Automatic annotation (TrEMBL):
Keyword terms of this UniProt record: Membrane, Transmembrane, Transmembrane helix
Species for this entry: Thiothrix winogradskyi
Identification of the protein by name: 50S ribosome-binding GTPase
SUPFAM superfamilies: P-loop containing nucleoside triphosphate hydrolases
Record keyword Transferase present: no
InterPro entries registered for this protein in UniProt: GTP-bd, P-loop_NTPase
Source taxon at top rank: Bacteria
Transmembrane segments: 7-28, 48-67
Domain G per the UniProt entry, residue ranges: 126-236
Length: 506
């Protein structure tokens, strides 16, 4: 109790002292400010305003610095990414020819371009119906085109059916309507063939019978990223009152507005919020029929079909915007081809990079086995390491100088120093699984260690080139250190087996 009372008196005294000091400072500052103000009044007008402006500028600059320091340089608004360069068909065709000459498979890309040209020639208005199973897509299409012919296609190796309906309207418009498999028809993922077909369409009609789920919204965002005009048709209109329909439509549009503001659209394409329409696709419904004698019976009866809002909207779009919709369709398909081209090139480079790393790792192991005094100093073999880095940079079209390579190898040697004892110990343990190598284990241990080093070295270079587009010495060396210790036991077994096979095959 005495200690507590004493602390309280000390705190009270501290507060009193701080109050007196603050008042003293306030009086002193006020006095000096008033003296300064009086002196400024005596200055010439031009000098007074110049001095005042300087004071204000210093205060504002100081305040700006404080805000930047406190906020850590973070901006409260979303970071604006640079808009992607438009894909030009001529340059895209030239790029396809280049990667084909390099040995890559370009058949799917050429088919996509040829199909785009066919659709241009045909001049059909292509409308894709997308959405989950049992939401009424087929019923809507049949209601729109009751006499249309149907053709079932399998696209892109997909086992999912893509139904195509062709029709010529009284106005002379040629229509191609496609019924695409939805997410839960494609094992819980957005089917690639269905997505591509939606991208090829002029308009995508997304059919649902309720508010959009998270996965449905993600599907639409993916399509919107290609600049697709979207139309959301909410089926089973009779389940919603007019007020509920207005609220639901507003909620869906606001989600797209929010996504656009926060920049979740990866391609940063400006997309207008989709039109939301309410329809009734027909089908059947269960009712309970009550007879005069009190007996009840559950029976099925047809629902009334009303898709007039959708039909009117589509006809208006075709009549007024078909030319601009065609331009958007062409752009979307070219973006799709560019995406596939980039994926093809990335896959090819990964495969080739693995071959290069495997080849030079093998050479490093052979060099270690052939050494007169293997393992006297476990450093990276300069010539083999340099050639491997050069070949990987050539694969990724990244110019590199010998200075860059030397800098990277020096960085990796610095990272390697502390790992050598561990590598040797792990390599030695790995070789114990092979009997009869005890007398030459020293040389073999170093050969296994070289294998581990070159494997990590090559993979770190390939990873850096893929992620950054150029050989950055410091990040690549950091990745090398991570890969050197990653999955060490399994990698050691692989290289130990390879070393033993090479040694016994001499």
């Amino acid at each position: 109790m005495k200690i507590t009372r004493r602390l309280r008196w000390l705190l009270a005294g501290g507060i009193l002292l701080m109050t007196l000091l603050f008042l003293l400072f306030l009086f002193f500052a006020t006095k000096n400010f008033l003296d300064l103000w009086d002196r400024l009044q005596l200055l010439p007008t031009w000098l007074f305003y110049t001095y005042s402006t300087l004071i204000v500028a210093v205060v504002l600059f100081s305040g700006w610095l404080i805000v930047k320091l406190v906020s850590g340089g973070r901006s409260t608004t979303a970071i604006k990414r640079p808009a992607p360069k438009p894909v030009i068909e001529a340059s895209l065709t030239q790029e396809i020819a280049q990667i084909k000459a390099a040995g890559m498979d370009t058949a799917p890309l050429e088919v996509e371009i040829a199909e785009l040209n066919e659709r241009r020639t045909a001049g059909n208005a292509h409308i894709a119906f997308f959405g989950d199973i049992s939401t009424g897509k087929s019923s809507i299409i049949k209601a729109l085109l009751p006499e249309a012919g149907v053709e079932i296609n399998l696209r892109g190796g997909s086992t999912r059916e893509i139904r195509e309906y062709t029709w010529q309207t009284l106005a002379g418009d040629h229509l191609l309507l496609t019924d695409l498999p939805g997410r839960n028809e494609a094992e819980g993922t957005l089917d690639a063939a269905a997505r591509d077909e939606a991208i090829r369409a002029h308009i995508v009609v997304y059919v649902t019978d309720s508010d959009l789920s998270r996965t449905q919204f993600e599907d639409l965002q993916e399509l919107a990223a290609f600049g697709k005009p979207l139309l959301i048709a909410i089926n089973k209109r009779d389940q919603y009152t007019a007020e509920e329909q207005a609220q639901l439509a507003q909620r869906i549009r606001s989600r797209f507005d929010s996504a656009q503001r926060t920049g979740t659209n990866e391609r940063s394409v400006r997309v207008e919020p989709p039109e939301v329409l309410f329809i009734q696709s027909g089908g059947t419904e269960e009712i309970v029929r009550v007879y005069p004698d009190g007996r009840e019976e559950t029976v099925q009866r047809p629902r009334k079909t009303d898709i007039s809002a959708l039909a009117t909207h589509l006809q208006t779009e075709i009549d007024q915007r078909l030319e601009s919709l065609t331009q958007q369709r062409d752009t979307s398909v070219l973006n799709l081809v560019q995406e596939k081209l980039d994926t093809t090139r990335e896959d090819y480079r990964r495969t080739q990079a693995e071959k290069i790393v495997r080849s030079y790792t093998h050479k490093a192991i052979l060099g270690a086995l052939a050494s007169v005094s293997p393992g006297t100093d476990l450093v990276i073999q300069g010539v083999i390491g340099t050639r491997m880095v050069q070949e990987l940079c050539k694969l990724y079209d990244s110019p590199v100088s010998q200075l860059d390579i030397d800098q990277f190898l020096n960085f990796t040697q610095g990272k390697l120093g502390k790992s050598i004892p561990l590598l040797l110990a792990v390599a030695g343990n790995g070789l114990k699984a092979f009997p009869g190598v005890g007398t030459v284990a020293g040389g073999l241990v170093h050969a296994v260690a070289y294998g581990l080093i070159f494997d990590a070295l090559g993979k770190s270079v390939a990873h850096t080139l893929e992620q950054r587009g150029a050989l950055k010495a410091a990040p690549a060396a950091a990745t090398f250190q991570e890969m050197l210790s990653g999955n060490l036991e399994e990698r050691t077994k692989t290289f130990a087996r390879l070393v033993i096979e090479q040694y016994r095959g001499k």
